[in-house]
Amino acid sequence: MNDEQIMTIALDLARRAVENGNEPFGALLVKNGEIVATTENKIHSHSNPTHHAELLLISEYCMKHHVMDLADITLYTSCEPCFMCSGATVWTSLNRLVYSAGSCDLNRILGEPEVSSSEIVYLNSHHQPEVTKNILNAEGIEILQSYFGTK
């Protein structure tokens, strides 16, 4: 599967998060071309503001597989990870990050300063994953706009 095909799944997870009463973010992990874990944002259903899709996914995968190093893993996410989730990609030595909408896209929708959270975190970090931006960007933005544009 290519980046667009895998991102379609992340975007579907973001839509499912909204259907389940959460915010529109979905993520999955790929190892050796195979999807090994998926999840969606669960901050409301778990009553936990740290249960962003990316952080929850990384935490659950690492606990299940008794690993702390994701150097052979790619994270696909419907939106560029926030500062907290970007930090998790640093501490786990994630190999590659692929996202749809950027945090600047989300911030524009929210009327906040346009800041690239992952770029700021990676700028002075001991680890920087390879980053592929804006895969199916218009679709990712549409999902965010349909949710946050009405709030």
From TrEMBL:
User: Any idea what this protein is called?
Assistant: Nucleoside deaminase
Gene Ontology molecular function: any one: guanosine deaminase activity
Q: What is an annotated GO biological process for this record, any one?
A: purine nucleoside catabolic process
Q: SUPFAM superfamilies attached here?
A: Cytidine deaminase-like
Q: Which Gene3D superfamilies match?
A: Cytidine Deaminase, domain 2
Q: Report the residue ranges that make up the CMP/dCMP-type deaminase domain in this protein.
A: 1-114
Q: Name one Pfam family in it.
A: dCMP_cyt_deam_1
Q: Which domain of life is it from?
A: Bacteria
